[in-house]
Amino acid sequence: MVQELAIPLYEEIESGFNKLLSEQGSPKQESNSLRQARLSAFERFKEMGFPTTKNEDWKYTNITRFLKDEFTIAGTDHSAAGKDTPIEEPVAAILEQSVIDSLDCYRIVLVNGAWRGKQAGEQYPSGVQLFTVAEARLDPAFSGYFERSNEFEKNHFAALNAALSTDGLFIRVDAGAAPDKPLHIVHVYTSTHNLLVQPRHVVLVNKNASLSIIESVMSEDGNSKIFVNSLMEIVVQPDARMDHTIIQASGKALRLIQHITVRQRRQSLYNNFTFTFPGADLVRNELSVRLEEEHTESHLYGLYLLGGQQLVDNHTLVDHQKPSCHSNELYKGVLLERSVGVFNGKVYVHKDAQKTNAFQQNNNLVISKKATINSKPQLEIFADDVKCSHGSTVGQFSEEALFYLRARGIGEETAKALLINAFAFDITEKINIPALRAHINHLIEDQIPVTTEDLV
Amino acid sequence: MLSIKNLHAEVEGKQILKGINLEIKTGEVHAIMGPNGSGKSSLASVLAGRQNYNVTEGEVIFKGRNLLEQKPEVRAREGLFLAFQYPIEIPGVSNINFLKTALAEIRAYKNLPPVDAKEFLRLTKEKQKLVEFDARLVNRSLNEGFSGGEKKRNEILQLAMLEPELAILDETDSGLDIDALRIVSKGVNKLRSDKNAFVIITHYQRLLEYIVPDFVHVLYDGRIVKSGTKELALELEERGYDWLKEEAHGKESLEKATI
Predict the structure, then answer these.
(1) CA 20 to 30 Å from A334, out of A138, A318, B189, B251?
(2) Tell me, what's the ipTM?
(3) B-side interface with A, Cβ within 8 Å?
């Protein structure tokens, strides 16, 4: 292992892994191949260690200061214990905040990455099967979903998750099923001591099915630091559709590494909306969408509105492997106070992927003089009959627009709020669930008026 | 209502206004004419509070208070309105939301109760009719993709909604065809009353056929070089500005000679 004395977490990880392997109970019941996959993922992590800024993919995101605290690895048996324990008080308060007004939806709650399972009286979408990963990984029918290793080859955190994760949520949508309402998944993170949580989720949308999930990432504003290293793998089968909205509006002291890989099959559609608001000290969203078969369509929309001293990094990959696929990506950022944003978007068009349409755009509104944005759009094309474009802009408020609004009696703060909303509008107008759109607009408005520090 | 005394202003170190004196009373309509670059639009900008104009001398009193000390939004709430020569396009801010926000902030400033949704709708419809503003444009983004004429009519719609005491129309006639000109003028004439005043900045006498001014001033080289009644506008239409330029330079050289 790359030994860096400044990171006590290495030792905790080593002992955590040994404990996991030697433990009586669930890991022992895993298939041999899954145990092998864990071992090789762990070996890979040991080789790589945690990323530093010397690593090209982490050049602008220095995570050293977020790793230097002591963390305890979340218990491997929390899912079993969680089943019957009632939700604690502080969690209840957070849950209330997570409610999306007048959204008609199914709702499930994961506390520290674990779902307590189906509860009597609760409703679940028909045609959708929900399991805990704690059970699914022991089921030979599902274990294949946890064994793939290509994602972990280059990704430090994905490898670490694959080695150590024991629980999470497994969603399977039956072929042809189309649930009537979205599924709202609330992730609550809470702890009285510093904690490393590594949830592992799988979403499988079978042929001709459709699924809409909304994930809210919430946490308390406590003193204990919670480091979340989450991994989600999504497969969208032929002719299926998935709408995926992620709302990151946690409290401070949360460090969130969120790795999502999407594999799309023929004529499937995947829509992703990622919203990041002030709160978490560190957010790294790693979203890889692999268009593995022909005629797929993917839309990636991101809005990051950052404040405080947040460091938020959106890393996306759109991997066009086959012909006649369409991808469209638009990420917009508003940077307040001393926040730092990173956008790194790569579009890769393989030699085979003729007739590809791929568009990517990143626009930033840097409001505070003390905020920073690093934007790096990348386009790598190996096919010759494609339509691709990419671009990136960084700007400030338009003085002319601001004056026009003020000349009509609109105060400076309100005028700035209107302009921020207008900037975000390109993203919010794409949300096709009105209650969700209203919720996001409220979250934007909550950050406004911009603080006096920003009125520069 | 408005009293401008010896107003000097510069932009980026360049002297633009060189001693403007003007008195405007309620119920009056003043036209300000003058050749390009004479400082007409600069005067409007200074009055509305546009940044990067630096007042170096003189004062402006609006309704008994020092206008130049007030932020642009306070000037607007106090009842000053500038119809922009080039209205700004703001994608993502709907016209209707813009009007609603402006009206709400102005009423709050005046300690008036907010207008409820129903009343606001009624008011908007009424004023839209006044300027023959296409109802479909109201829900669109502010000025985005509007034609030149639609933008100017939108300015007058805002004027009608916000009911200012002093409205400055900065070359509202530029880029308008004859029909649009008639509509805009009709709107302004309906809004004229003994409680408000208008300053019409224009190049051409044409607009003044529709909106008949009480006074006409000619601005040249940052100063008002001649004031008169509406007949002055007609004279300018016939003779152009050159005779006034000569007169102004003559006076200047005379002054210099005296010194």
Answers:
(1) A318
(2) 0.94
(3) 48-51, 71-73, 75-77, 81-82, 84, 87-88, 90-93, 97-98, 101-102, 105-106, 109, 141, 158, 162
